[in-house]
Amino acid sequence: MAGFAEGVPCWVDAQLSDVEAGKRFYGELFGWTFDAPGADPEYGPFARAYSEGRAVAALAPKRDGRMPTVWNVYFATPDAYALCRRIRDEGGQVVSEPVPVGPLGTVALAADPEGAVFGLWQGGTHPGFEKRGEPDSFCWTEVYSRDKGVVDPFYESVFGYGGTDLADAGEDFRTWSPAGTAPGPETAIGGRSLVAGQFPAEMPAHFLVYFNVTDCDAVADAAVRLGGRLRAEPFDIPYGRMAAIVDDQGAGFAVLQDPVT
C-alpha cells in the first residue's frame, strides 16, 4: 500500500486501561475484528482493529494509570526526526522522541503550543490505514484550540498546510489541506475549531477523532447501551450528521454520517 503525504492523518489508536473491554465495546459498536492475542509480537501489546479485513485503528494499554484515556491521531512524515526539530522551532514540544518500532515504522508524540497532543508516524512496513473515509473507519480530525493566532501558524508552518476559513460552519472553523494541494474542502484532511461557549472552562486543547458511520443515531444509541455516554446528541452540520461520544472507559471520539443525497 502506498504511503501518506506528510501531514496527512495516517493512523489512530486508543490508549485504554482495559484493552479487552475496548475490544468488546468497539467490536460491537463498529463491527471491528481484532488480531488474536500475540498474533503480531512486533506490535507489542497493541490490538489491531480491522473493518472488512482492513486495518483501521489500534487499541493499546496505557503504560501508566495516570495517562489520559484518549484517542490519538498520528500524522504521516517521511522523517520523524526532522519534523520534531521543526515542531520545537515553531514553539511546540516533543513529548516522546522518535522511537523505531521494528520494521513497522518510527513513532513520536508531540504537542502544539497550547498543549494539544498528536502523534507522528514515519511508516515502514506499516504505512497506516488500509481503510479510511468509509463506514466504520477514520474520516476526519480537528484540533480544539483557544488561540487561533498561535495555533494556525504553528500547524501551517510545521506541516506546510494551506488553510481555508469556512463561513458556513456556523463557528470559527478552519480546514487544512496538505502542502502542494489547492486548499479547500475537496482536499482538506483536518481542521481547527475553538474551545468556546459549550465547552467547560477547564477543557484543555485537544484533538478529536471522527469515524464515518452509516447511521449516526443508531451508533449513538448503541454507544450508550454499551456503557458509553454522549457528549453531544446527534445533530446536523453542513457535512452530515454527527455525535460526540465518550466510550465506557472515558475516551472521547465523534461519529459522522455522510449527508443524505
UniProtKB/TrEMBL annotation:
Residues 8-123, 137-258 form the VOC domain. InterPro entries: Anthracycline_SecMetBiosynth (IPR052164), Glyas_Bleomycin-R_OHBP_Dase (IPR029068), Glyas_Fos-R_dOase_dom (IPR004360), VOC_core (IPR037523). Pfam families: Glyoxalase (PF00903). This is VOC family protein. The lineage of its organism: Bacteria, Bacillati, Actinomycetota, Actinomycetes, Kitasatosporales.
